[in-house]
Design a protein that fits this description.
There is one protein chain. The protein has 304 residues and is mainly alpha-helical. Helices cover 57% and strands 6% of the residues. α1 crosses α10 and α5 runs antiparallel to α10. The longest helix has 23 residues.
């Protein structure tokens, strides 16, 4: 299995692409749409305007982070598109990936593409900088979530509002999905900091081509993704990729016995980067309202 992964991941033999390109292939490879700054979210309300009395100015735990956009969008979008194309080609050229159920192939790519793409940014050493858009993204504390839900009772059930109020009153943690539903996906300085932090970590480790390939395979074959028809086989492939990476680093870098562990320690930071943030920062001006999953599925089926 290790030899097979090495052949698939490293050499990635060129395959003749079908004559029909994926929808938006030309759009991705030669972006011509002017880069438009993302629409700014509404400024957060004054703490005393619509919040519960229990969450006055001194008690409110809301946090704000400055929203940002790319400084040189045209150039960065081109590099980002090239990185995405290389990533999908890498995936399509894996024999072990092509042996999986077609539905599982689509699920694995659409659920893990942003991790693979971010790893590709590190491997390609893509440089990008951002500038503030002049807006802020507001992260609501629990009391503010209740206040906002109250203001949306025409579209939110009374049961939801009451249940959330009860959680706050009893100091029970409001489910993350309730808070997230109140927020926007406009990239912020914090989001960009996470991306840069992971990229710099990979570059600091100076990963070589084989390490990137094994790591990409380990990330792609994620058995925890919901909806897999054969999760057991995906788990076998992930274990094989991780074992191959471990064996390779031990043989290639004998004076760095902790290298494999240091590589794996960076994965939680990678998984904290939201796919929606990657989409908004690097691709939204190009794809408009088209869902990223539609583009990825089309690239997987028709070639890229």
């Amino acid at each position: 299995m290790a030899d097979q992964l090495t052949d698939d991941c490293v050499r990635c033999p060129s395959k003749s692409l079908p004559p029909e390109k994926s929808i938006l292939y030309n759009l991705l490879i030669t972006p011509t749409v002017p880069a438009l700054p993302p629409s700014l979210p509404h400024a957060p309300a004054n703490p005393g305007d619509d919040r519960d009395v229990r969450y006055s100015r001194g008690q409110c735990r809301c946090a704000t982070s400055t929203t940002v956009t790319l400084r040189n969008p045209h150039s960065v979008h081109q590099h980002a598109c090239q990185t995405l194309l290389r990533t999908v080609r890498f995936v399509r050229n894996l024999a072990t990936f092509n042996d999986l159920d077609p539905g599982d192939r689509s699920v694995l790519l659409t659920s893990g593409w942003s991790d693979l793409f971010t790893l590709g940014l590190a491997q390609s050493r893509v440089q990008f900088s951002t500038v503030p858009t002049g807006g802020d993204r507001h992260r609501s504390c629990q009391g503010c979530v209740v206040a906002k839900l109250r203001g949306q009772q025409n579209s939110v059930s009374t049961e939801t509002v009451v249940a959330t109020e009860t959680m706050v009153a009893t100091e029970t943690e409001v489910p993350t999905e309730t808070v997230v539903a109140m927020e926007t996906d406009v990239p912020t300085e914090t989001d960009v900091g996470k991306i840069r932090g992971f990229v710099e970590r990979c570059q600091g480790l100076d990963l070589d081509m084989k390490e990137y390939s094994y790591l990409m395979a380990a990330l792609l074959f994620n058995p925890d993704v919901p909806g897999l028809a054969d999760g057991r086989q995906v788990e076998v492939l992930q274990n094989s990729a991780q074992q191959s990476l471990n064996e390779y680093t031990a043989a290639r870098y004998p004076l760095q016995p902790l290298r494999f562990a240091r590589i794996l320690l960076g994965l939680p930071a990678l998984r904290s980067i939201k796919a929606k943030v990657i989409t908004e920062l690097f691709f939204r001006p190009l794809i408009g309202a088209v869902d990223m999953e539609v583009i990825l599925t089309d690239m997987l089926l028709k070639g890229c």
